[in-house]
Amino acid sequence: MMKTILLLAVAVFVSSTPVTTSVKPHTDKTPARHTDKALLGELVDELIVAIKDFPKVLPKEKLIFLKDLQMNGLDHKEREVLFCQVEQELKTKVSGLSDAIFDHFRTDKKLMRNLNMYNKYHVKTCKPVDEKQDEIPLHDFLKKLLTSVKIAFNQVK
Amino acid sequence: MFSTFKCQIFLTLICIALCYEPTKEDLKCFNDYETEMKCSLSSKRLQSCSGHKLNITHPVSNTFEKYTCIFERNHHSDNCECNVTVEGFVATEIFNTTLLEGSNVLLYKTFMTSDFIKPKSPVLSVQKIENGNFNVTWDDQYEKNGIFFEALRINLTYGIKGGHKNISKTVPNTVRSYEIVAKNLLPNTNYILTATMSTDYNDHSIPSDQSATVEFTTCKSI
């Protein structure tokens, strides 16, 4: 009788243990090239839309300035550092602004999410921005960034 | 003693048979890379969909989006199905799912967005053109353009209606049209055409559901 109960108990226990599976486990390793291509390509798309939607003329109180980061003539590693600093600049100075014109830069929107995922795969520690750097308006910052992201995208292609 | 042992084995097997044990293959999820994530649960031992749900956690930047997907019976497929609306997809983001029956956890499964993209089915259109050929066009059903749409490709399949041999052609979505050359077809014959879409984001591993069939008829003389 005891053996029966024990077998039944084992059977119930085994069958009720949840199975843990992953389709593909999330890894901190550098993703496949087609993933980089997807992230950078999507970032290009989102930046184009964000630049198009952003007003060309803004009242003084809505002018936002970001550090004039070096975005030209960079190698792959330097560009990885740049993209991380770009994310930090946008997060600290733009993402939290309430006006609708800054919607694209919220952390739950695709522009920032793609940038965030790219940086998660490529950068372990973000190098802080040089505070002595000059500043430029957000619109100019975005246009320079778009050029840099396009170069990175073409290099992955 | 031997009959007692047989009884024990029998009871064990009964329990194993009656206790629902989903495997990872039983739970399938797909996203259309726009706004929808659809999941299905299939198992011969699943008596009812009621009480089964999927808790989904989706890390986004420094927060977590949470969704609950409640399964209902799909009478066409006889599977349990549910769907949730997501505010846009990003290629490498993760969805952590927990399959529950009531409060009982049955299964954990993690999906990476790009791996489980199943594009929307295309909507086909065929028109006979001046040179007698057939111009196939399609609507990929996506509102926006961009890198994702450039990474789509359409897999066209056509053949004689009621026949067994089909011709398949794959073209990039960006091409937007494909011309079927009439002289390669039989005259005065009905043909049917279907298509699926797939994406480079996951090496074209998951095709869309097949499109609705469109028919076209060749001229009496070609």
From TrEMBL, chain A:
Alphabetical UniProt keywords: Signal
Signal peptide range: 1-22
Protein name per Swiss-Prot or TrEMBL: Interleukin 13
Organism: Cyprinus carpio (Common carp)
TrEMBL record, chain B:
InterPro entries registered for this protein in UniProt: FN3_sf, Ig-like_fold, IL-4_rcpt-alpha_N
Keywords, sorted A to Z: Membrane, Receptor, Signal, Transmembrane, Transmembrane helix
Pfam families per the UniProt record, alphabetical: IL4Ra_N
Signal peptide residue numbers: 1-19
Subcellular location: Membrane
Cellular component, GO, one term: external side of plasma membrane
Primary location: membrane
GO molecular function terms noted in the UniProt entry: cytokine receptor activity
The Interleukin-4 receptor alpha N-terminal domain, residue ranges: 26-114
Membrane topology: Single-pass membrane protein
Any one of the GO BP annotations: immunoglobulin mediated immune response
Protein name: Interleukin-4 receptor alpha N-terminal domain-containing protein
